[in-house]
Structure formats: C-alpha cells, structure tokens
Amino acid sequence: MVGQEVSLKQTTKLQKIWVGSKPYILALLIAFGITGAIIGLLGYNVLKAYQTLLFTSFTSQRGIIETLKKFIPLTLTTYAFAIPFKIRFFNIGGWGQMLFGGTITAIVGIALAGFNLPAIIFIPILILVAMAAGGVFALIAGFLKAYYNINPIISTIMLNFIAIYFVNFIATTEPWKAPRTGHPMSLKLPEAARLPELFGQIHFGIVIVALVIIAVYYLINKTVLGYEIIATGINPDAASVYGIKMRRTLMLTFLIGGALGGLAGGIEVMGVHQRLIEGFALTSGAQYGIFGILTALICQGNPLGVPLSSIFISILLVGADAMQRTLQVPVELVFLSQAIIVLFIVVLRRRAGGSFIQ
Question: The pTM is what?
Fold first, then answer.
C-alpha cells in the first residue's frame, strides 16, 4: 500500500513536470522551426547550421571552455534582473552595473598595484569592490523608485549611458589608460589581482558563480528577506498590511541584483581581460545585460532555473559564433531565435498556467 502511494506520488510529479515543460518544448520547436526556415531561404545548409549551433560547445575542449566563460557573467547578469523581478520591478541596468563594477575594479586594482598585496588578500578586496560598486549603482534606481516613484525601467536605462561613458573616460584618461593602444583600455592589473586559472583553462570565476547560485537559492528560499521578496512580488498591498516594508525590500532587491551585476564586471576584468577595456561587457556583438533579461524571462527568475537557462543560452552563443565563423550564417539569426523562444515561452506558459521550474 505504501509502495503504491509512493509510486502514485512519483507519477503525479512526473505528470506535473511534463505538463509544465510543454510550453518550453513547444517554444523551442517553434523558434528553431522559424529560424531554420529563414536559414534555408537564405541558402544555407539547415542541418549543418543546427549541428554547429547546438553541438559546438560539446565537441572540443575549447568549446566547453568558451561556454563556461560566457556562462559566468551571463548567470550573474541574469540574477541582476531576476532578483528585482521577484517583486515585479524591472532592472534593465544589468549591463550598466556590470560596466560600473568592472570599471571601479580596474581603478582600485591599478591604485593598489604599488602595495604588493598577496593574491589571497587582493582578489577578495576587488571582488567586494565590484559588488559594492554595482550594488550602489543599482541602488540609485531603487531609491528613486522607493522615494520619488520614478519608473526603474527609465532610471536604469539612463544609468546604463552613464556607465558606458564612465568606461570610456577611465580607459582613455591618465593615470589609468594604457599607452600606445588603438582601442580604449586601461593598464593591466597586477598579477596578484588576476583570477587564477583552474586546470590551466577556466578562471576561478566559475567557483565564485557556483557559490553565488547556492547563496541566491538560500536567500530566496530559506531567509526572512527571501520570504519578504516573494510575498511582496505576489501581493505588495497584503505584504505591506502584514508589516513588510515595501521601500526597504525594493531597495534591497536592487542592491543585491546590482551587486551581482557588478560582480560580473569585476570577474570579466580580473579573469578574462585582466584590464578594463571598452566592450568588455559584450558577447557575440550584444551586451550581457540584454541576454540576462532574456534568460531571466525564460525561467521566470527562478533561482535554480537561472543557471539552467544561462547554460542553454551560453551554448547557443558559442554555437552562433562558430556558425558565423564557419558557415557565414549571420549571428543575428540566433538572436532572432532567442527572442522567439522567450516570446513563445511567455505566451505558452501563461496559457498553461505555470512553469515546471518551481
């Protein structure tokens, strides 16, 4: 009898997962079908294009490494959007927070170069600096919404422009700029300020991201603040009646989201470029902030859904680069496919009444 009950519960759970996953499967089929039709009409080999798009990440060591390198900042910028999204506010400034965090990391790293700090001290300092910079930068938008009711969509977009020009200023101005370069970039960070590589291939940022995934899951699901964030997102009026401070919760979500966006910038500066360079927050010709928004919408901002969606989008980005390089298929077609995936997932999920990522 007990065995039958367990079997019935397992069957019910599997049915629930299947029903919840159907919008995702349908959205993928529709998006890949439309994109494949366009690729065929343009005269490219559709099967070869999809083989390159979907399997480049797994067919070589370089493909795996490149996928993980994209996965690291993408996961963090996805959280930058997903955490404020929990209370139904849109942080469109993940890109700007990444830029600002990376810029401040470079400034502080260069400023501390003469102190000969060991890596075990230097790296944590810069990680905290990156998070503080991104968090404070995002907190501006949270403060404006909390106290002046200014739409964070507008304020975060405008802050993006400030971050862009701040990068250009630092990368082209003494004492930070590198001499005799044809592209805006800063001096290199000291050796002790650079993230070490694991197995000689992928930098330590992958460990940092793993810790962030665990921390965000714990924050949202196991803490009082996480409960307040979820309750505020479900019904802000009821949450306020029961003593949850809306202003405080709103500002904290932007602070945390921005801190993770800033961390993405710091990791890129410390682990990939080892200096501030204009365009460091771009991948495949587009910004990580936009990809973070798309990725968060795919998984509804679910803490455990974020890394799953991020690895999927990273696979597509690596495949898109390879497809453009080897088959001359425009990478914009992959961006189109991603947009269609998000559109249909949102529509079909709404009709289905939920998500299998709970």
Answer: 0.92
